[in-house]
Amino acid sequence: MNYGRMRFVAGFLVIPVALYVIYVIAPYAQAFYIAFTDWRGVSASPRFVGTENFQRLLGDGIFWGAVGHNLLLLILMPLLTLVIALFFAFLLNAGGRGGTGGIWGSKFYRVVFFFPQVLAIAVVAVLFQQVFRPDKSGMLNAPLIALGLEPIGFLSDTDVAFWSILGVLVWQAVGFYVVLFSAGIASIPRDLFEAASIDGAGGAQLFFRVTLPLLWDTIQVGWVYLGIAALDVFAIVWVMTAEQGGPDHSTTVMAAEIYRNAFQYFKFGYASAMGVVLFFFTIGFAALALRLSRRERIEF
C-alpha cells in the first residue's frame, strides 16, 4: 500500500523536480564551472584557469568596495525597513485606544503605503532620478534653490549618493511589510490587547510586550527576505546612478559589477567568480539570520 502511494507521489514530483534541476540547479553548476575558466562568451571550449579568477578578486578594489556597499545595505536596509514598517503597522492596526483598533483613516493609509509595490523597480528609479535632480525641477532641491541655498547632489556627490539609494530602497520596500505585519497583527486575538490595556499597559508596552513577541516569526522571514534583496540590489543602482554605480563607484554593488564584467567587458569567467562569491554571501546570511533569530515559538 505504501509502495503504491510513493509511486503515486513520485509521479507528480518527477516533472517539477526535473524542471527545477534543468532551470535552477544546472545553471548554478554551469556558473561554478565557468568561474574556473577564462571564458569570454564566444569560444566553444573555455580554457580552465583554476582559481585565477578568485585570486584576481582578492586584489580588486572596486569589487570589494561593492561588497562593502552590499554589507552596509545588508545591515541598514532590513533594520530601517522593518522598524518603520512595524511602527506604521502597529499604528494602523492596534494604535487606537486600548489597542483595539487602528488610527483614523487606517484603510486609506494602507493603500498609500502599498502604492510603491505596484510600480516596477525601473519606474521607481526613473521617478527618483527626477526627485533628486540638482536644479529647479528637482522636488527636493527646488525649495533649497528658492531659498538661495546650494542644491544637494543627491546622485552626484560621492558622500551622499549611497544614502540616497538606501532611502529609495527603504521607501520602495516599506509598504509591502506594512501590509505583511498588518496581517500578522490582525491575526492576534483582540482579547490580548484588551487584557493588557486593562492591566495598565500603554502603547509602548502593548507593542514590545504583546505585538512584537507574537510577530517574531513574521519579522524573521522579513529579515531574511530583505537581507537577500540587499545582496541582490541591481536595478535601482543601474538605472538611477551615473556610470551605473557612480559617481566614482560610490554606489556600486556586487550585482552591478557582475553585469558590467559579463556584458560590457565580456569577462564571463571573472563575472561568474563574483557570482559564486555572491551566492555564498547570500546562503551564509540566510543560514546565520535564521540561526540567530531562532527563539521559542509562542502559541495563541
Automatic annotation (TrEMBL):
Residues 67-289 form the ABC transmembrane type-1 domain. Its main location: membrane. The chain crosses the membrane at residues 12-36, 71-96, 108-132, 160-180, 223-241, 268-290. The lineage of its organism: Bacteria, Bacillati, Actinomycetota, Actinomycetes, Streptosporangiales. It comes from the Bacteria. This is N-acetylglucosamine transport system permease protein. It is a multi-pass membrane protein. Keywords: Cell membrane, Membrane, Transmembrane, Transmembrane helix, Transport. InterPro entries: ABC_transporter_permease, MetI-like, MetI-like_sf. Belongs to the binding-protein-dependent transport system permease family. It is found in: Cell membrane. It comes from Streptosporangium lutulentum.
